[in-house]
Structures are given as structure tokens and as C-alpha cells.
Design brief:
With about 120 residues, the chain is mainly beta. It has one domain. It contains 2 helices and 8 strands. The protein has helices at about 10-15, 50-55; strands at about 1-5, 20-30, 30-35, 45-50, 70-80, 85-95, 100-105, 105-110. Strands 1-4-3-2-5-6 form a 6-stranded antiparallel beta barrel. The radius of gyration is 14 Å and the shape is globular.
């Protein structure tokens, strides 16, 4: 997965991007948006090269509303261009499941086990 985003050109963004597991919010509808509130000003980017079926094996869709997913998340990025980043790590939080890893080391994590097998 890749994140296309124009971070503000300031010290706060530079320091933020040096970290792993940066707090953000994942908002997924027909497009996959990632919102960062720790930047000044706030900024949102678009995820490309993602597969909804693979994502939903690791992050359960919610019900109703504009977004199938709207959750606090943690992300680690690796800059590959001016406004382009590979997503190295992504974990999404769910009240009933806790942290659900979506990507680890740039690859999809093992699928989650969210429901009892019958």
C-alpha cells in the first residue's frame, strides 16, 4: 500500500515522520483516506494499491454511515517520493477486538480471527 499525501513543510511534520506507529485515523468508503491530526495544519492523504478483500480479512467493516471503517490507527511510513510513502505498518483499533494489524513490514498481516467458527 502507498500513501499519497502532502505533509506541511515544517519541523513538526519532519519530526512526526521520523517516528514509527504514528497516530492517525483510517476512513474508508470507496476510497481509503488517512487523517493526521498531529500535523499543523491537519492533513489527509489517499491510500493507493490496496485490496478491500485483503483489508477486511484483517479489519472488520462497521455498519452504516458514510464509511465502512472509521477508526483510530497507527501507521509507519517510508518516503519514496515528494508526496508518496510506502506504508510499512498499519494497525486499526476496534473497541471489541483491540488492535488489528493490517500491514507488517509492508506486507498484509495474517488474517484476524474475529468470529467463532461454527
Amino acid at each position: 500500500m502507498r500513501l499519497e499525501i502532502c505533509f506541511p513543510k515544517n519541523m513538526i511534520s519532519e519530526m512526526l515522520l521520523e517516528n514509527e506507529k504514528i497516530p492517525c485515523i483510517c476512513k474508508i468508503s470507496d476510497k481509503f483516506e488517512i487523517y493526521f491530526s498531529d500535523t499543523v495544519p491537519d492533513v489527509t492523504g489517499i491510500v493507493t494499491d490496496w485490496d478491500r478483500k485483503e483489508l477486511e480479512l484483517r479489519a472488520v467493516a462497521g455498519a452504516g454511515g458514510k464509511y465502512t471503517h472509521f477508526s483510530n490507527s497507527l501507521i509507519t511510513l517510508n518516503k519514496i517520493g515528494d508526496d508518496s510513502y510506502n506504508i510499512i505498518y498499519l494497525s486499526i483499533f476496534y473497541v471489541n477486538f483491540g488492535w488489528c494489524d493490517v500491514l507488517i513490514d509492508g506486507e498484509y498481516a495474517p488474517p484476524g480471527k474475529y468470529w467463532d467458527e461454527e
